């Protein structure tokens, strides 16, 4: 923990246990105090590579679902327009999902691509295919 972020550990020890100079304590005592820190302490969140606490993620998820329920009751929701932005995605810094749209010039081109996908699937492959 010290090698990862000593300043965060110092802040957490001071906040939780009022230990302002951990170097004066025996190493084993500091280790015990460090392991006893809350899951949402600075150092433990850094160790687990979390950007938000569990409570924050739960509240953001609840807010998102409530927003979707309310949006679905509006005219925009019934038409599939102006969907609310996800707070949880913003909190977690998730990349936006890109929709890959494919258009075919003819029915024959569609059938050819479809057959290629089905053959790949039967052969144990995946749904990846070459777009012309």
- The average pLDDT is 89
Query: Could you give the count of β-strands?
Result: 0
Q: Could you spell the SSE succession in H and E letters?
A: HHHHHHH
Total domains:
3
Q: Provide the low-confidence segments as ranges.
A: none
* Helix coverage percent: 55-70%
Instruction: State the end-to-end distance.
Output: 51 Å
Sheet of most strands:
none
In one word, what is the shape? elongated
Could you outline the blueprint of secondary structure elements for this entry?
Blueprint: H1 2-17, H2 27-35, H3 42-47, H4 54-72, H5 75-79, H6 87-92, H7 107-122
How would you describe this protein?
It comes from Trichococcus flocculiformis. InterPro entries: DUF5361. This is Phage protein. It holds the Pfam family DUF5361. With 132 residues, the protein is an all-alpha fold. It folds into three domains: 2-47, no CATH class; 54-92, no CATH class; 99-132. It is built from seven helices and no strands. The N and C termini lie far apart (51 Å). The relative contact order is 0.08. The mean pLDDT is 89.
Concise overview:
The protein has helices at 2-17, 27-35, 42-47, 54-72, 75-79, 87-92, 107-122. The chain is mainly α.
Summary tags:
132 residues, mainly alpha, 7 helices, 0% strand
